[in-house]
Amino acid sequence: MKRTLALLLSAALLLSGLAGCGGGTQGNVQGNVQGNVSEDGSSGKTIVIGGQSDLVTLDPGNMYEPYGNMISYAAYDMLYRVQSGTMGTPEPSVATDYTVDETGTVYTFHLRDDVVFASGNPLTAHDVVWSVKRVMNMKESNAYTNVRIVENVEATDDYTVVFTLTEPDASFLIKLTSNAYCILDSEVVKEHGGSDSGGDEAKAWLDTTSAGSGPYVIESWTPKEQLVLQKNPNYWGESSNIDTIIFREMTSVDAQITALKNGEVDIILGLNSETAKQLEGVEGITVTNGPTAMLTFLVMSRDESLSPEMANPLVQQAVRYALDYEGYLTLGGDGCTVPLNFVQQGFSGALTRDLATEGQDLERARELMAEAGYPDGFTVTLTCANNNSEGLEWTTIAQKVAEDLAEINITVNIETLETTLVYERMREGSMPFYVMFWTPDYYDINNQIDAFLPGVGDDGTAYGNRTMWERTEENEALWTLGNQIKTDTDETERAALSEELQRLFDQDNPFAFLLQHPKTFAYNSNTLEEVTYNDLCKIELCELVAK
């Protein structure tokens, strides 16, 4: 086993090195470029970030990818945003205060009266209402799940917004910190096809620019290459001393490390505990880390038309027993944990897998395969993107899965595709078996419930639809517990209910959760003041300060 893990780690490093040979940093943009002249005549600065994002769109009403909020937080405001350096603590942004009625369903927010959009238009309660209703009428959007709780939203005057919820929601204030609640310049977006009553056609335009009130505006985006943000000259808050931020797409971790050493980038995001060792002792470079809620897991569809064998719940349970969880911890590096299932550490009642009693059990896995009718196994395609989870390549994970499942006679053929194509097929529900990661849209267990519990159709969940895991009488107990958690405001009670839910979920589900990852990144401390990390929006671009 140790030899196999060593080979997998070596292969991962080799692939990373090969990717670096042809990748590198196109254009050789130097970090912290001096000489950009601001509108006030001062010399501005440029900061370059190297990483591998998963950006599919820049429209905050359609964003659902882990790196989406890094951009939305720079270009837009919400009523509330996540407090710097926390895992999800909400703090006021455009809102000044709020009240909630005795039913727990009516929230009234008062807004600042000095906020303006990049266009110069004032931000009012009417823009908040329009922006939320736009997403409420975009049911095809992945962000829709986060506004589904809203029954109605109205402006009672220019600076007061009232939300009426379908039911009490213990997480609503935290939910407001997600990109689904970004406030758009309604007058400008309507000129480009935006609608708050259905039939919105503004996404294509919003993929080229922004219409927000944040400290930066989107200058340009070339998917899979780079994104450029420019300082918003009409920003209502404290102005940054950085005029331009460039996010450079770099798939190779080795290329990121080399670029940081050479001063070509100022921040790199693709490290893990092992690759970060290459930067130990390098003058002027600071390596830091922090907690994340990122999960890496396997998805096994219940759609029998894709693979009748893999869709069998007994086979899916066998897969969970066959996995060598300690081996994945070794691949993930220091700081990784194995969650019991869909609730991460940091959320109410989160449970980790006890590897002594809930780890790999090949005997039990083989019994389940025989019970399912496949004692001699079968062949299945495992799809993975050319992507990584905090520096751990998905191809490396796939190779390990193939090795583990060979022990129970499942032959795994690995299919590697571009990340955007995997996301597309994931949302179509057209893959029988694949590697995926997940970070929450907002930091509360309610986000996980609405993503991973069973349910298909418009009222289904994200992964209920993606796996065709239907809500039935047999699994309704999951929702009984889930709905109690979603409305209960007593944290002790929520934690106890959460533990019960996770134990019940573990008995039957179409997933195998492998790891929860820490975040490791590095920056040039000669060009930047201390860089903080926030797992919702990754690097807080609006708080970067150049030296």
From TrEMBL:
GO molecular function terms attached to this record: peptide transmembrane transporter activity
GO biological process: one example: peptide transport
Family annotation (CDD domains): PBP2_NikA_DppA_OppA_like_7 (cd08512)
InterPro entries listed in its UniProt record: Peptide/Ni-bd, SBP_5, SBP_5_dom
Localisation: Cell envelope
Primary location group: other
Pfam families according to UniProt: SBP_bac_5
Assigned keywords, A-Z: Signal, Transport
Location of the Solute-binding protein family domain: 89-455
Signal peptide (UniProt feature, chain positions): 1-21
GO cellular component labels: ATP-binding cassette (ABC) transporter complex; cell envelope; periplasmic space
Family: Belongs to the bacterial solute-binding protein 5 family.
PANTHER family, per the entry: PERIPLASMIC BINDING COMPONENT OF ABC TRANSPORTER, PERIPLASMIC OLIGOPEPTIDE-BINDING PROTEIN-RELATED
Protein name as it appears in the record: ABC transporter substrate-binding protein
Species: Candidatus Intestinimonas pullistercoris
